Give the backbone structure.
Amino acid sequence: MWLRGKEVAKMELYANTVSGGFTNLHFKDKEKEKQFVLFNHFYNIDANRRGLILSFGIWALLILYAFLFYRYALLSVSLSIILIDYPFFIALLILLPRPNLVELYQWLCAICNVCAGIVGIVLNFLVLRDALAGTVYLVGIQLAAFFFIRIRHTLAVFASLAYTAICQLIVILCGFFDAKYLFVLSWAMWTFELIFIVAGYALETATRKYFSEQKARDELLAGILPLSIAEELKSKGSTKPVRIESATILFSDFVHFTSATKGIEPISVIALLNGYFTAFDSMTQKHNLERLKTIGDGYMCAGGIPDNNNTHPIDACLMALEMLKYVKDQMQNIEGIAWNIRIGINTGSVTAGIIGSSKFSYDIWGEAVNIASRHESSGIEGSINVSKATYLLTKGFFDFKPRGQIEIKGGEKLDMYELMGIKEKYIGVDGLNKEYHDTYEKLAKGELLLGYDV
């Protein structure tokens, strides 16, 4: 009753992805669980480092304590700490920043905690016979398991239960305490154990919930922005516009869209557009392009952004050919709706960046973008209109038909070329042949220069 709908939805989403009880917290999705283990480790890495150093210091104080008040036990205390625990602490500090050894780090943490617990309890209760120091030490080592060195909840529970049970056994069998004192001692150690188990469970549950929400935000951001830009935005909180010297821009537009959709239910039109644009989105991923935006029935994407590469003019032309084929196939398959498409492509320098502060949008600006748009609007229905800049870079891969100089908006005349298809020498029985793939790979590596060597 007291929760808003959005909060309830978040709780239900989290509940559907996490399973387990107090000693078995994990996500049902194994890949997500692996991601969480890494996230949790590095999310807590500073706390882990402080916890290890603190534990190291506590052991040093224990040696000093034994030296000042129990000189006869100094040798056994020192040897136990130096031989058993210090090697573990050193190993843990070395392993801490290594992502491929996270599981080993967790197990070593648990083993170290158990060893430290047993050694400390034996020394305090059996060697030094100091019940108060032993109880305080036990609570401290329990606290370390769950909060100082941040052992994962399952391991922390089993580690702390191991030495707490041993401590209980020692205080019962040693015969140093009367029944009343034994009861108070036992009540104290198990009460703290239960408190830490519940608190540790709450801590890991909260961390998992935070991870789930952050993962959902990251996936949403990655769907809106290019991955490298999304990462920069997350790490720095902002991004700066970047000048990109060479990018290829592709514009497409459905011809006679308004008249072709007249009399059709808007919901049906949106469903059809969604089908086309979803297919185009898949093509951008296939050809290493970045989808920028849709404007009504127009679609815009670009190659060579935000991370530059050597093959973006080829990638854009291949996508344009695939788009054209897809639209023509749809025209044959969908009765009563004959949408055709125009595509314009240009290569040149652009400025790329994010606009907006609450609703982010990654976009590009520059004369090259305007020229690509003019090539789309000046194109022929059912064809791909390419600029001279793109033609010069890709003429070794594709066949073109010169269209001559075409006047664009503003009175300027530009050389335009119609992209006909990929050159026959690159076509094999099952599509693009080995010669094409070898040449493309050399271009991608920079071994060949587009427009000169090819």
